[in-house]
Structures are given as structure tokens and as C-alpha cells.
């Protein structure tokens, strides 16, 4: 019989979090040295310790390209989120770790390229929906469009869902990039 | 010629010398030949040729753990590096400062599946504190200095520097270590926040049933930290328990000492942990062998956790007051603040608490019965302890992993830190003998004993050659019960006594084996031979391997079965056929 999270916690040998604790989605900005292997360290940490990665983006952010910013969206209990931050901070090439979800209001955006193959009415409909979503046409043929859309993850999700209903689709998504609101500049 | 201009290989030797390294444990091979060539030309650094790269890392660990200095390892590419992985993981789990230099195929061949090539930095990334692949000879010296800095500061750990052969041959400028290394991103916090120390003192002074639970972090913080811990405990008269890694951080002879805690800890230590109202955890990490059943772990306590590694805090157990910092600094501040207060700990409550603890102590949970027919393993360790006690602090014990390790932890009393070397986190069988080699090199005149099991010792038996080659008088004290004892014990308790593959079949004759390697071999099979064997072992001015036949059915108690809480310990063997551990516990090892 499968046991659920409410059984006695059998923690004697290995610690399990069998109680169901609320899981939250957090967005991290991790400022790192742009050196070989740094992304592998970050990803290896997540897979090795069993943390989730919902989305990950990485790019250099300084003029001299010595510093990169990794944006990670993850989910976990409060304790796990705290661990993720502490573990990331422990990596030698990591400058600092910002839990944007905890630190206050922030902007989160995603970009997607959505190819939809449709004819006739569906083709015209796709264009109308794209207009509603402020998506731009990035490429077109007589039987397809490539739309460029950006915005919140939810907005991109719902746009893709609608396009799916109109025809065969192919999607390329950037993953979430995020930055804090307000005038303060995060030091690198 | 500019004296700072030299080959990469020469830089390695110069950097090691500048870092104060006097001994390197290693094994040569194609990709490190230039470095070995430089080693040949100098006399400052002593190279110890091990017989397997795993042994090199464990030896370096033993050296580091017993001297407080970083252990240095030099191995070749490919199999040299992969053989070192177990040792590196062991050092990471137990926070031992190691700098491991690995040779690598020339840079232009990296990624080509060249002979003896492996992705060393990729393989060792999760089992090191940090690692480097040096592709530019002009960065080599600085990287080596940084490796020492990272390995030895903050929470110590192993660091790998992978050096391709062309970088070793190449010529560049040597950079001397800068006085005080300051790393741009790696800056561990060593000084604790003063406000938190104040809050901790408030909590400790309000305690009615306090306990100090200290671990390997105190040992890593240096002997002064252990002194401060002793001072703190004497001053407060709080009961103190130590983890496996912490043994020696507080003197075993002190009246406040409750013994080791955890799965095979003492009855009094585990009950006191369970019933305490304020817990001061110093340099320990609430490991699953310590906590037992998590939701029954010290249920009525408020917890203070001092650790230099923020990721150790709130990992397994949520604490009320986290303090990030070096154990030594934190203890110093705690003592200072406590002294300055007018309020003293609640004497009356403390006296009550000690009365309860004394009742638990009265169980004498570590007692065992001896007889004339067969040596009890506990008896062997007790006698070893009693017969070496007059040597004072000059006794160093290493162990392998299993029952003998737990018995050694229970029955051998340590009064000083750095005297006890064991594989705690990773639980590596085969750790003890190479570690003893490393310890003996750090302490040439001390008594170094590897307390071993007959199964564990075979995992790195080849290091006997190393001991013989360098005339290291290590003593290997095998408790031979003809079983992988801990495996057998679990099979007895969990799996209905079906001893699947845990019988040590086709064992060598350890006395003849010792003699074949050039050691003295001794054997005891009856209790009345035990003292004579230990005497002879101690009297021999060279390496000895002792085969002590012990009771094959003895189990290690006390024991907290998996799935159980601290106040649910097993003290005596359970009745035949009865399963002490529930179905849930079975899944948990």
C-alpha cells in the first residue's frame, strides 16, 4: 500500500520531508564569474541535491564579459528555498545570490518564438490573437507565421495554448529573466 | 634570467614550498612526470609514494586531521584522478582541507579521449569544495595559492587543481603568495554577529535542561577552540555530548561529558538530547545518524546552531537561533558575554537536570560481559585504551568503518582534539590504514593505531607497503569477527538473520600477510592472550599488524533503530527472530 505524506516520519537513517509543507515558486538572480564550468556548478548543485529548475537563463551582463547573471525559477518549501540560496552562495565563483521573490517587487519577463502552421480562417484568427497579445510577426510564409511574444510566463503560456488550437505549432522560449523594481542597482 | 621565470612544474614545487608544505602523498604517471622530475631535484618537500591513489587522499586526510595543516596529494590523469575520487568525497563530507594536484593530458588533446584522459574537473566538481583546470602557465601559481586558501579557510574541504602536461612544461612567471589572500567572491564569515551571541547567552541562561552538542567543526577550528569549549562547559556545568567527528573536542574524563550521541551513542547522551530545553549545537550539522526520527528530535527544545557554513543551518532541523561563524570566535564571545552577565545559570534546575542524567548514566549502557573463552571486541578496545593511557596525548587512533569503529568511538577516551581520525560522513571502509600512514608522518614519534575490522582492512591493505617503505611504526589492530559486522548486525535486526554475503570468506592469514609485507604479525584468539599481544605490539619498534579474534556474534549497542526516536533506544540484543525495526525503517539502511 502506498503511503502518503501523513505517515510517521521515518527519519532515523535518512531525513525525509514527509509532511506536506507548502511549496512556493521563487525567482533567483545569481551573479557569477563568467568562467568555464560555472553553469555546470550551478546546474550540478540543483540536480545533485534534488532541487527543481523550472526555468534557467544565463548571459554575461558586464561590458568586459567577466560577470554573468543566471536567472533561475525554482519551487520548494521554505526550508528548501533557504537551502538553495545558502548552497548557491557557497560556490566559490558566485558573487551573490538574490531571492527576488523574497526581496520585494520585481519584474519577470519571458520571450518566445511561436511558429504556427495554419490556413484560411485559422491563419487569420492567429493574426488577430497575436494582435490582442501584442505579439509581432517575425516571419511568414503562405501557410505559417512565426510570432515573437514577450511578457509574463502566464501570458506566454496562454498565447501558446491558443495557437495550439489553431494549428500545428513549434515553440522556442527563453525562460524567465527578472530584475528588481525601483532605482536600486544590484552590484555585481 | 629572471628568478620568477620558471616552468609550470617548477612552479608547483615552489608554490608548495611557499605554502609551507613538507609532505606530499602521491603516485607518479605520464601526465605528472614533469612535476616528479622537479620533485627529484629538491629536498624540501618529501614525497610519500602510496600504493593506490585512494590511499594518497586518505593519508593526506590523516595528516591534515592530526596536524591541522592541509594535506597535499599529487596524482596523474585518468585513473589517478578517478581513484582519488573516494578520498576527495570523504574529505568533503568530513570537511578536511586537502589540495589535490592532478595531471592532465596536454590542453590540445583535452576532449579527444586521449590516453589516460578523463574529465577530472567534471568528475570532481560535486566531490570537491572547488576545483580548477589551469590552461595558462601564468595563472598556475596564483591558482595554487588560491587552492590552499579555499581548502583551509571557512569550512575546510578538498580542492583539485588539474594541470595539463603542456602547462607543466611551459614557462611563465611565478607569483608568490600574497600576505593575506583576499578573494573577490569567496569570503567566509568567521566572526559571529555580536547581537546573536547576546541572544544565545539569554537563551542559555534561561535554560533549565541545557545541553551542548559539539562536532567536528570545533576540531577544525583548531585546538584553541577545543580549549574554549572545555572552558565554557566547565564554567556553565552544562552537560556536553560530542559527535563521532567531534571526539576529543571536549575531554572524555570531564564530569560533564556524556559520551558520543546518535545511532550508537550513549543512553545518557541521547536521552539528554531528547529531553533538553535549550540545545547549543557547535560545529555539528544535525546529521541523520544524530537526529534519529526527525519529528521526535529534541521536541521541547529551543536550538542555537553555530556553524561556519550557512548551508548547514536549517538544512535538516529548523533552529531558533542560527549563528554563522568560526566555532573558536563564537565560543570566545559566548564566554566573554556570559562572564559579563550578573545572572548565572539556574543552579537548582541544573542540579535537577544532572540528577536525571545520572539516572540515565546508571544504566551503564556501554557495559559488556566478558568470559574466558572468547575475546569481546569491546574488551579488546578497552584494554588497548587502558594500556596506552599512560602515554598521554601521544596516542592517535584511526579506524576503518563498521562495528569496530563504533566500539572504538564508545570505548576509547580522547582528551585532546586531532587524536581521532575516522571516516564519519562518507563511511569509507579502507580509510584507516592510509590515514594512519598520514598521521604517523605528521607525528613520527607518536603511537598511531588503526583499529580495523578484517573486512575493512582488506580494502586498502596495499598501504602496508607504504608503511614499511618509510619505516612508519603504525599498528594495525584488527578485530576479526569473520563478518562484515555492521552489515551482519543489520541483517540480524532487519532481515531475519539472512546473512547475505556478509561472511568474510577465504580470509588471508593476517600474521603471514603482515610478514609477507615485512611487518611484524601477531595473533590473539583467547582473552588471556590479549594483554600480551598489546604489550608486544606496543614494544615493537616498527609496524605491526595484529589479528585479534573476537566474538563473531557480538552486536554494537546501544543503538537507535531506524525510524525510532532518541528515547527509543535498544540496549540489549533483541530476542531471536524478533524484528526490532519496522517496515519503514527498513528502507532507510
TrEMBL record, chain A:
Coiled coil: none annotated. Keywords: Amino-acid biosynthesis, Branched-chain amino acid biosynthesis, Transferase. GO terms for biological process: isoleucine biosynthetic process; L-valine biosynthetic process. Pathway: Amino-acid biosynthesis; L-isoleucine biosynthesis; L-isoleucine from 2-oxobutanoate: step 1/4; Amino-acid biosynthesis; L-valine biosynthesis; L-valine from pyruvate: step 1/4. Gene3D superfamilies: 3.30.70.260, ACT-like. Chain A, domain 2. Its EC number is 2.2.1.6. It comes from the Bacteria. One of its GO terms (molecular function) is acetolactate synthase regulator activity. It catalyses: 2 pyruvate + H(+) = (2S)-2-acetolactate + CO2. Residues 27-102 form the ACT domain. One of its GO terms (cellular component) is cytosol. InterPro entries: Acetalactate_synth_ssu, Acetolactate_synth/TF_NikR_C, Acetolactate_synth_ssu_C, ACT-like_dom_sf, ACT_dom, AHAS_ACT, AHAS_small-like_ACT. Dimer of large and small chains. Belongs to the acetolactate synthase small subunit family. Catalyzes the conversion of 2 pyruvate molecules into acetolactate in the first common step of the biosynthetic pathway of the branched-amino acids such as leucine, isoleucine, and valine. This is Acetolactate synthase small subunit. It comes from Marivibrio halodurans. The lineage of its organism: Bacteria, Pseudomonadati, Pseudomonadota, Alphaproteobacteria, Rhodospirillales.
Automatic annotation (TrEMBL), chain B:
Binds 1 thiamine pyrophosphate per subunit. Binds 1 Mg(2+) ion per subunit. Its EC number is 2.2.1.6. It catalyses: 2 pyruvate + H(+) = (2S)-2-acetolactate + CO2. It comes from the Bacteria. Residues 6-121 form the Thiamine pyrophosphate enzyme N-terminal TPP-binding domain. Pathway: Amino-acid biosynthesis; L-valine biosynthesis; L-valine from pyruvate: step 1/4; Amino-acid biosynthesis; L-isoleucine biosynthesis; L-isoleucine from 2-oxobutanoate: step 1/4. One of its GO terms (molecular function) is magnesium ion binding. This is Acetolactate synthase. Belongs to the TPP enzyme family. One of its GO terms (cellular component) is acetolactate synthase complex. Coiled coil: none annotated. InterPro entries: Acetolactate_synth_lsu (IPR012846), AHAS_TPP (IPR039368), DHS-like_NAD/FAD-binding_dom (IPR029035), THDP-binding (IPR029061), Thiamin_PyroP_enz_cen_dom (IPR012000), Thiamin_PyroP_enz_TPP-bd_dom (IPR012001), TPP_enz (IPR045229), TPP_enzyme_TPP-bd (IPR011766). It comes from Marivibrio halodurans. GO terms for biological process: isoleucine biosynthetic process; L-valine biosynthetic process. Its cofactor is thiamine diphosphate; Mg(2+). Residues 197-334 form the Thiamine pyrophosphate enzyme central domain. Residues 401-548 form the Thiamine pyrophosphate enzyme TPP-binding domain. Keywords: Amino-acid biosynthesis, Branched-chain amino acid biosynthesis, Magnesium, Metal-binding, Thiamine pyrophosphate, Transferase.
